[in-house]
Design a protein that fits this description.
The two termini are 61 Å apart. The protein has 73 residues and is largely without helices or strands. The chain has no helices and no strands.
């Protein structure tokens, strides 16, 4: 059975000849085939110091003791 057929039982025929067929009531949300849970935002990584706390004034050189900084950063 064609749900868009105006002659189908249960469907409202066009009120007058030549009038456009009223669009079917669109669902508020598309029916997914599988329930997709909302993707939680990525949590911010905790600020973990890569170097041990040092005395003020003797900060380690950036990049020392670890991989070099990524290009473009």
């Amino acid at each position: 059975m064609n749900p868009n057929d105006p002659a189908a039982p249960g469907q409202n025929p066009n009120p007058m000849p030549g009038a456009p067929t009223p669009p079917p009531a669109a669902p508020t949300e598309p029916t997914p085939t599988m329930p997709t849970p909302p993707i939680p935002p990525m949590p911010e990584p905790p600020a973990v110091p890569t170097e041990a706390p040092s005395v003020p004034g003797s900060e380690p050189t950036p990049g020392a003791g670890g991989p070099p900084p990524a290009p473009g950063m």
